[in-house]
Amino acid sequence: MRIGNLDGRLALFLDEGAVDVARASGGEFGPDPQEVFLRWDEFRAWAGGPEARETVSFAPEQLGAPVPRPGQVFAIGLNYRDHAAEAGVAVPDQPPVFTKFRGSITGPRGAIVLAGETVDWEVELVAVVGRRADAVAADDAWDHVAGLTVGQDLSERTVQLAGPMPQFSLGKSFPGFSPMGPWLVTIDELRAGGLDPDALDLGCAVNGESVQKGTTADLIFSVPELIARLSAVLPLEPGDVIFTGTPHGVGMARKPPRFLRAGDELISTVAGIGDLNHRFVAG
Ligand code: ZN
Questions:
Q1: Cα–Cα distance between 72 and 133 in angstroms, integer?
Q2: 269 CA to middle of ligand 1, Å?
Q3: What is the largest CA-CA distance in the chain?
Q4: What mean pLDDT is reported for the chain?
Q5: In what order do the strands lie in the sheet with 109-113?
Q6: CATH top-level class for 64-281?
Q7: Which of 71, 99, 168, 260 is least crowded, fewest Cβ atoms below 10 Å from its Cβ?
Q8: pTM for this structure?
Q9: For residue 79, how far is its CA from the centre of ligand 1 (angstroms)?
């Protein structure tokens, strides 16, 4: 199943087109894409039902963030060995955790304002919580995931690294710096398509030139492991999201460093899910 946000309304995406969930369910489920996670099991049962549903065609520009107002946004740093190496740090023995503030969330298409001279890309797999997870073991963790989507952990490196301690949360939370989309894909849908949710290819390209290319099989802390470790500290609630970290190839680590410029186009992809497509404009 693929679900998401079409013009601000919860939609189910079929091969033929989009289904407006509030209309198709006769109001049983509301139009808010965020609220659906509070009734995830009921929604899954309805969405998997046999009845034929009216679909409409749509343009990618109509898509918004599939999880527009998560209660909590977790983000993980240095979660791929080759990225830790390019950042010049040892492989962590526990995941560094920060947040991307909610005001930075945007959808999978459109323009993003460059907040400075050193804005960098980080393509990431994003996991969306579907069932409350309180001290969940890694073996049970996938059962608490509603699905996966594509994210960018855009980062203003000067702000991120200024001052006596790194400002990860602040430097990664300018407006538009947390795009997600194009929709959420459930784990069973990925498996039905022959994909392993623990081994998805991901990457991004600037103006058509590939800059990051990796696989989530190389995550130091896998999605289940992250859920186990985070939920050992505090409960994860339905509709929370986890940005799981980025593979190597960020602009900051290049020699010389390379950052996003006005007019650049950034396409970010996770296999089996889809892509984000953004262009950058001067602030
Ligand atoms: Zn990141």
A1: 13
A2: 15
A3: 59
A4: 97
A5: 109-113, 274-281, 265-270, 201-206, 209-215
A6: alpha beta
A7: 71
A8: 0.98
A9: 8
Tokens of 271: 């296999």
pLDDT tens for 17-36 read 999 999 999 999 999 999 99
Q: Which residue has the tokens 């087109």?
A: 17
| CA gap 134, 130 in Å, rounded | 12
Instruction: Locate the domains of the chain by residue range.
Output: 2-58, 64-281
Q: Compute CA 281 distance to the chain's CA centroid, rounded to the nearest angstrom.
A: 22
Distance 77 CA to ligand 1 centre (A): 5
Residue 193 Cα, ligand 1 centroid: separation in angstroms? 27
> pLDDT for 138-147, tens place per residue?
999 999 999 9
What b/e sequence results for 231-241 when a residue is b if at least 16 CB atoms lie within 10 Å of its CB, and e otherwise?
Answer: beeeebbbbbb
Q: Label residue 225 by pLDDT band (50, 70, 90).
A: very high
Which amino acid is residue 262, in one-letter code? A
Ligand 1 centroid to Cα of residue 153, in Å, is 5
For residue 106, give the amino acid letter: T
The Å distance, Cα 46 to ligand 1 centre, comes to: 35
- Spell out the long-range contacts of 193-198 with Cβ–Cβ below 8 A and sequence spacing 24 or more: 193/272, 195/271, 195/272, 197/142, 197/148, 197/223, 198/222, 198/223, 198/224
What is the 83 CA–ligand 1 centroid distance (Å)? 10
- Determine the 3-state secondary structure of 87 from DSSP: coil
Nearest-angstrom CA–CA distance, 279 and 14:
27
User: How many angstroms is it from 113 CA to the middle of ligand 1?
Assistant: 19
